[in-house]
Amino acid sequence: MSEGYEYRGTARAILKEGAHVGDVVKITRRDETFEGALMPRYELADDEHIVIKLRNGYNIGIKLSPDLKIEKIGLGAKPTFASQTYIGKKEELPTIVIISTGGTIASRVDYRTGAVRPALTTNDLLTVVPRLAEIANLQTEVIFTLLSENIYASHWTEIVKTVAKYIDQNCEGVVICHGTDTLAYTSAALSFALQNLPVPVILVGSQRSSDRPSSDAAFNLVNAVQAAAHAPIAEVMVGMHETISDDAMVLHRGTKVRKLHTSRRDAFRSVNSSPLARIQREEITLLTADYQKKDQKRRLVVKPFFNQKAALVKFYPGLDPQVIEWYVQEGYRGLIFEGTGLGHLSRDCFSSVQKAIDSGMFLGMCSQCVHGRVNMKVYDTGRYLYRIGVTPLEDMLPETAFVKLSWILAQTTDLNEVKKVMETNLVGEIDSRSIYD
Amino acid sequence: MSEGYEYRGTARAILKEGAHVGDVVKITRRDETFEGALMPRYELADDEHIVIKLRNGYNIGIKLSPDLKIEKIGLGAKPTFASQTYIGKKEELPTIVIISTGGTIASRVDYRTGAVRPALTTNDLLTVVPRLAEIANLQTEVIFTLLSENIYASHWTEIVKTVAKYIDQNCEGVVICHGTDTLAYTSAALSFALQNLPVPVILVGSQRSSDRPSSDAAFNLVNAVQAAAHAPIAEVMVGMHETISDDAMVLHRGTKVRKLHTSRRDAFRSVNSSPLARIQREEITLLTADYQKKDQKRRLVVKPFFNQKAALVKFYPGLDPQVIEWYVQEGYRGLIFEGTGLGHLSRDCFSSVQKAIDSGMFLGMCSQCVHGRVNMKVYDTGRYLYRIGVTPLEDMLPETAFVKLSWILAQTTDLNEVKKVMETNLVGEIDSRSIYD
Questions:
Q1: What is the pLDDT of residue A45?
Q2: Considering the entire predicted model, what is its pTM?
Q3: What is the DSSP letter of A297?
């Protein structure tokens, strides 16, 4: 976001007649009229659209055409996110906490400088997405401003403690803004660390920053706050677009979700599971009966720590078995393998696997197939690995298994206990039924 | 397959009236009649079905019910895969070569011992799947009998040389039977190593062994031979079930396919691409116009070698950056990262990445999102990694990128050349168009 944000080409030609980025404009085209602040050109967009931020917080991209009329109705100084009048607490609305960790959803572009800053004081949020004030009394806290590829165990602990603090204060739901890159790892971490939840905890991200015509930031935030306020599900969930249109958000169980597209708005999918609920036109539809019900009297159990001597190892043809031994030498206490198919490694790895077992390491097996369940009883390879002590982890996602291992290793040094917990479903991470998508 | 194969429970009760595994039986139920050899009980199946192998080579599972009549019409000695009369060469049929590397599809269970053996002499194949004799004149060669998790670079080379040998002898198509676990890695390897193909080369596997009621082995083999004989596409492809029913096979481009389910028959999917063709009721429908046409006069280019100093590294929150440095110390010449989102690693990895770059290693970036395309120009992390020399690999699958790197490193020591080839589409592995599934 360090380059110029003014428009180019056709867009520039039309705009130079009067309006500049930041101005409030009125755009008329045939029967339609749009009013809003002219947003910066997104660097990768074409030059045939302009983007305005409507008063309700949504951005809209408008294709330029000869019949388009653009009228400047406000000055450039106006839309710089200055504080609005603070909207006081409404007794009839639930109190929802929005915790920000950074990422695309928590950011806004400064119209003047192009810099990206987290927009998460309550006032800022209400300026950007005024609709939120009608849904809930908001409390907000920015705990970090990180791209999510930089979020890991110690940050998970801090997020967990912050959520627990607000639940202790009797908030009715929590929304966590987070970058999408590692959002599913964090949702797994929170699922294990925040057990026996009384209220919904919803992680939300956005795939397009709020200066883009196709931004999903406002839509996702409004729906996540709706869900935190009204969903009857007291679990850690990820709330994101169900499809590429702004039609609905779905809530995925925190241990059963994966980012499955680099850029689509509906990149997040439940894997080996169904979404728990859909939020559509402000209505919440439950998609399963199998969930933990909201109960503000339930007593939260917090186990916020993660041990960093766990690792995730993806097998592939030619993987150097010495990598496994390197982890043994470095004092790692457990590995999760992303094996092939039903849970396999090549026989070249067997002696290194045996050394890892002999060292007292926990070794768990998941599949790199993404979907489906491991079964180490079908082929000789699986049977052998199972016999020497590799633990099959059913239909658990490898990313979730890695996080779970890191979490349980922070609580016990007893290998049998680690193994027992890894094999046991705690918060929906293992589904005993076969899922055939 | 080392346990008992006789039936238990209800199935046993009915069967003990007369028929045993291996016998030819006639089963009558209401209006239906089935005749075939009684197959062994599959260890994981329930006790309420029996399985018979029909004369056309397909297996069928029949639910036991009180109105079922089972009549023994042949002795147990009959269905032991004894040689049938060899069917001589028919001039009007194309010559298709079936090369076996092992895996579920190439195996059959001996009715008497439960041992699994590759069934790939021509006679054996025609006994198991007689339909094949009507499609093509078959030549067969068993080059190994491996579970595919044990197949890697040196085996790829041997497969490549074998395919090239038969293409030199003017065969009209090649089918390669292969375990499904690493089938997509091998298909990528063959795609790079066998360029300028004159005829189709089709890798085929099966998800259920041929002694299971739901076995896809015969269906897949018949359709793969059909495709090798008649598809107008001279590329390396993977042919597998399109859906979970025996309705159609689709052919996936060898560089754009991934096993995306541990057990479903339609586990293989084209990723960031569409299948090239569908084979349904013996008819081939092209699904794209973008393919290399069959031309038996085209001169095959064979580059069969792979360098094993390439590795695939999946990033996850907390990945120890020392792993990257370990690869440097071990003299690796290139790494493919499975980054998060658009192609990111945590900033904790930056200094190790810099050391790898300084050592002259090639570093390529793909995404762990499976679907979509990396873009290292959107966020600071991507921009930084790009600036210091990490190469974004567009929409290439990480598995394909790893294989391609291993292949190009066997041909040149010039880092610029490696980089140029990795960025260039050779055989469909990079699609310049955006794909929105």
A1: 46
A2: 0.83
A3: T
pLDDT(A435) > 90: no
pLDDT one-digit tens code per residue, B244-266? 888 899 999 999 999 999 999 99
Q: Measuring CA to CA, which residue among A318, A297, A313 is closest to residue A362?
A: A313
Nearest CB to A372 within list B147, B185, B263: B263
Asked if B340 lies within 8 A of A259 by C-beta distance, the reply is yes
What Å distances lie between residue B399 and B206, B310, B382, CA to CA?
Answer: 21, 12, 21
Count Cα atoms within 13 angstroms, Cβ side, for B375: 15
A64: closest CA of chain B, how far (Å): 23
Q: Is the pLDDT of residue A7 over 70?
A: no
Residue type, A326: W
CATH topology of domain A95-302: Rossmann fold (3.40.50)
> What's the 3-state SS for A382-400?
HHHHHHHCCEECCCCCHHH
The C-alpha of A392 sits at a distance from chain B's nearest C-alpha, in angstroms, of 13
Q: Is A115 on the interface with B (CB under 8 A)?
A: no
Q: How far is B102 from chain A (nearest CA, A)?
A: 13
CA distance A89 to B331: 63
Token pair for B328: 């440097």
Tens-place pLDDT, residues A213-251 = 667 888 899 999 999 999 999 999 999 999 988 889 999
Looking at the complex, does the CB of residue A264 fall below 8 Å from at least one CB of chain B?
yes
CATH architecture for residues B310-423: 3-Layer(aba) Sandwich (3.40)
**Domain map (residue ranges) of chain A:** 9-74, 95-302, 310-423
Lowest mean pLDDT, pick from A14-18, A65-69, A240-244 = A14-18
What is the rounded radius of gyration, in angstroms, for the C-alpha atoms of chain B?
24
Q: Between A and B, how many residue pairs show a Cβ–Cβ distance under 8 A?
A: 175
Q: Are B95-302 and B310-423 the same fold in CATH?
A: yes
Q: What is the largest CA-CA distance in chain A?
A: 76
Q: Are B118 and B144 in contact (CB under 8 A)?
A: no
Q: Does B226 touch chain A (CB under 8 A)?
A: no
Mean predicted confidence (pLDDT) in B162-187: 97
Q: What is the CATH number of domain A9-74?
A: 2.30.30.520
Of A11-15, B248-252, B403-407, least confident by mean pLDDT is A11-15
Asked if B380 is an interface residue toward chain A (Cβ–Cβ < 8 A), one would say yes
Q: Is B150 on the interface with A (CB under 8 A)?
A: yes
List phi, psi (to 5°) of B328. Answer: -60, -50
Q: Do A312 and B317 touch (CB under 8 A)?
A: no
CA dist., res. A257 & res. A253, Å (int): 6
pLDDT above 60: residue B406: yes
pLDDT of res. B115: 55
Q: Examine the residue annotation and report whether A412 is marked as an active-site residue of this protein.
A: no
Nearest CA in chain A to B340: A181
Q: What's the CA gap between B122 and B114, in Å, rounded?
A: 22
- Quote the mean pLDDT of chain B: 87
| Beta carbons of B262 and A372 less than 8 angstroms apart | yes
Residue B323: list chain A partners with CB under 8 A: 323, 326
- Name the token pair of B353: 């990445």
Tell whether A261 is within 8 A of chain B (Cβ): yes
| Catalytic residue (choose from A180, A182, A255, A400) | A180
Query: What are the backbone angles phi and psi of residue A19, rounded to the nearest 5°?
Result: -90, 145
Point out the residue among A150, A345, A399 whose CB comes nearest to the CB of B149.
A345
Picking from B217, B155, B220, the residue whose alpha carbon sits closest to that of residue B185 is B155
B357 touches A at CB < 8 Å: no
CA distances from B327 to A134, A320, B315, B359, B421 (A): 55, 10, 14, 11, 22
